[in-house]
Design a protein that fits this description.
- With about 475 residues, the protein is of the alpha+beta class.
- The protein folds into 4 domains: about 60 residues, ZPR1, zinc finger domain (N-terminal domain of TfIIb); about 130 residues, ZPR1, A/B domain (Jelly Rolls, Sandwich), CATH 2.60.120.1040; about 55 residues, N-terminal domain of TfIIb; about 120 residues, ZPR1, A/B domain (Jelly Rolls).
- The protein contains 13 helices and 24 strands.
- β3 and β4 form a beta hairpin.
- α4 runs antiparallel to α5.
- It is globular, with a radius of gyration of 27 Å.
- The N and C termini lie far apart (about 70 Å).
Length: about 475
């Protein structure tokens, strides 16, 4: 090709406009008129003519990314709306038990995935997993949908099977009594994917009527989600699996090719997805040693698309024999400068503000007391769209009042106590004394874990003695 031809080709190539970079999952904004909805031609399940399905990728405040799907047929008028989780399957399953007592509890928003089992023990109601599509609804909406399903073909059933129809009518009356709150009841969501959620109307305060427990999945539940490991591969397929491993992203190193000292002095990089917009980005990882504590792995991620910056800390060791609870009094500027290592299993609590943050909310991080407080505040201000967009003035005023109190804590106008509770014992708070003994404003309490805490950490199923015996 001649140089003139090359020059003419290169002049036609325009530089990429950096402003066109947009997060894959964006917040729903009333001012955003150019919503990135994808339209797909699909068949109508009623008349089997062609209709249009619209897909919108967005985020739910205080939850995670979802895909909204809407179908409408212009011929027969059939409409169908669904929601599917777009987040990765969580490390643990989740079990949420809500004690429904008031009308506000009935109006709580509920997000449930395809793998959610719904139970109401008081009326012996159970909706098995994968029998209904995931949806965004309310507690009352779950009951209404159940009633509609039971009423379907009820007239025909009364003619052909009168006894069964009478039993169903009796059960519907019991469900109607739940909607009228003639008695309190318990709604249980058990989701092995960990992607279900029930709104806390008192947030950021602790939800006293709702209890959330994370649990380790069994092998059968992992297989149901499509998760397999090497131990699940049949012996006949081991040779074939070894061949496939040559194409894996992560490959084992030869013995002696990478020493422990090399790992300490090297910053490793690997490709990942942004936790906010799910765009491709890189994470830097380094193994370091915290004095008077233990080795930890520090990871930092910067997204070029949405500008999100995160840092995360994971313990380099195992779970300690006992849990640990730190109680820090925040009264002076010196108290805000303490180094804090918060692990993934550590929860936070400020009793004076009636504020409680679960272990998964802020993740693991190495920062200061002030950094922890700012992270809690920023999460409420930046991700609190459910409050800012709400038409409930009482809810918005409660958040603003709480933020004013939080600002008084950060500006040291109000003295409070910050409690870090880590059942795994992998968190750390710096002492202001030179001998590393707790100072007057720091209490360190080590305690024996309860059965439920061991269950959440997966310790009850670990066999440490005679484990070679089947």
């Amino acid at each position: 090709m001649s140089s003139h031809a090359i020059e003419s080709v290169t002049t036609e190539i325009e530089p990429v406009d950096e402003t066109l970079k947009k997060p894959l999952f964006r917040d729903i904004d009333a001012d955003d008129t150019a919503a990135d909805a994808t339209e797909i031609e699909s068949a109508c399940m009623t008349c089997f003519r062609s209709g249009v399905t619209r897909l919108l990728l967005t985020k739910i405040p205080f939850f995670k990314e979802i895909v909204l799907m809407s179908f409408k047929c212009e011929y027969c008028g059939f409409e169908n709306n669904e929601v599917q989780s777009a987040s990765e399957i969580q490390k643990k399953g989740i079990r949420i038990a809500l004690n429904v007592q008031t009308r506000m509890d009935l109006n709580r928003r509920v997000v449930r995935s395809d793998y959610t089992c719904v139970q109401i023990p008081e009326v012996e109601l159970e909706i098995p997993a994968q029998t209904q599509k995931g949806e965004i609804t309310t507690v009352e909406g779950i009951i209404d949908r159940t009633i509609r399903g039971l009423n379907q073909d009820q007239e025909k059933r009364k003619v052909e099977h009168s006894d069964e129809a009478a039993a169903i009518d009796e059960f519907i009356e019991r469900l109607q009594a739940l909607k009228e709150l003639k008695t309190s009841f318990t709604l249980i969501l058990e989701d092995i994917s960990g992607n279900s959620f029930i709104e806390n109307p008192d947030a950021p305060a602790a939800d006293r009527n709702c209890k959330t427990i994370q649990f380790m999945r069994s092998n059968e539940e992992n297989h149901l989600l499509g998760l397999y490991d090497k131990t699940d591969i049949a012996e006949a397929d081991i040779e074939q699996s070894c061949k496939l491993e040559d194409n894996h992203l992560l490959k084992p190193l030869d013995e002696g090719a990478w020493t422990y000292e090399d790992l300490h002095g090297e910053v490793l990089q690997f490709r990942t997805l942004c936790p906010e917009c799910r765009s491709a980005c890189e994470t830097n990882m380094k193994l370091t040693n915290i004095p008077h504590f233990k080795e930890v792995v520090i990871m930092a991620t910067v997204c070029d698309v949405c500008g999100c910056k995160t840092n995360e800390v994971k313990s380099g060791g195992g779970i300690e024999e006992k849990g640990v609870r730190f109680e820090v009094t925040i009264a002076t500027k010196e108290d805000l400068t303490r180094d804090v290592l918060k692990s993934e299993t550590c929860s936070l609590r400020i009793p004076e503000l009636d504020c409680e943050v679960g272990p998964s909310a802020l993740g693991g991080r190495f920062t200061t007391v002030e950094g922890i407080l700012l992270a809690m505040k920023n999460q409420l201000e930046n991700d609190g769209l459910m409050f800012h967009d709400s038409s409930d003035e009482t809810t918005k005023e409660r958040l603003q009042k709480f933020l004013r109190k939080f600002n008084d804590v950060i500006s040291l106008e109000t003295e409070v106590s910050l409690i870090l509770d880590d059942p795994a014992g992998n968190s750390f708070v710096q002492s202001l004394l030179d001998n590393d003994e707790p100072d007057d404003k720091l209490k360190i309490i080590k305690y024996a874990r309860s059965y439920d805490q061991n269950e959440e950490l997966g310790l009850n199923d670990i066999k440490t003695e005679n484990y070679e015996t089947p």
